Amino acid sequence: MVRMTESSFLSSDGKHKVYYRKYTPEGEPKGILQLVHGFSGHIGRYDGFARVFCEKGYIVVGDDHLGHGQSIIDGLPAWVADVGGWETMVEDLHILHRLVRQEHPGLPCYLFGHSMGSILCRTYMIRFRGSLDGVILCGTSHQSPRMLSSAYKTSQAVCRFKGTKASGKPFFDFIRKQYMRGFPDARTEFDWLNRSADGVDSFLSDPFCQAVPTMGFIRDMLGGMLFMEKSRNMERMTKELPVYFISGDKDPVGENGKGVMRAYKAFLKAGMKDVTMKLYAGARHQLWDEENRDEVIQDILSWLDAKSGRAGY
Known about the structure:
Elements: E1 3-10, E2 17-24, E3 31-36, H1 47-55, E4 58-63, H2 85-103, E5 109-114, H3 116-127, E6 134-138, H4 145-162, H5 169-180, H6 197-205, H7 215-229, H8 231-234, E7 243-248, H9 258-269, E8 275-280, H10 293-310
Parallel strand pairs: 3-4, 3-5, 5-6, 6-7, 7-8
Antiparallel strand pairs: 1-2, 2-4
Helix pairs in contact: 2-3, 3-7, 4-7
């Protein structure tokens, strides 16, 4: 029996409430799994995914980042702050992390970050080193520093000229078209997300998933990507922290595996000692809701059980 509760906490910005869900299993839990959703997502979309891990003995918790889901600020999706929005979201993850740690002391705690959530997790691993027992990075990538720097400077200029709340639709449309290049026979503009028509339609019918990013949000995310990819920052990560990369080999976000491999190699170069990677043949971006989701879930469970068992739980 899974018990799901809903609550909120005060954001690190000191002004806004952050919505979150917590799934608690019967009996003695094995550990804590904190879910970190991607752009234009929210924790409610992970309900089925969360319940599976809860049924297997893990406490599962996850928030709607500011600007998303039930944590949207002043009715404007995909906007967090004029300054420091990325840092605010990362610090909010840590607030939730500490909250659940205090409620369940002694349990190992793992992060699962999908897409933009994986970027938040990678920033978190640098900023709050030593606080985790493992991290699963789903649908991530590792971009060219020159390209990121150029895009970031452009987004800064647009924010200065038009403001942080200006629509980022031209940028968003350009990226989406790039993602669709590998799917010439696509049924929708979001077929890059999932091979399953039901999975894509579920995304398209969700009102919380129709956000167009503001320029402030685009700037913040690009800044977060630049931060997490700098070698001197990566070298600050706890070297013994187990990290598990998973991605579809047809996921355009990870360049069909090439970007994931670059991230994997960058972690090894940074001195990380326990890094593994798996690419799933034919799978696209949303592995947690893909056609092969059962295989993905079983692989994650096996990894979690191995790590939590090694920790004595």
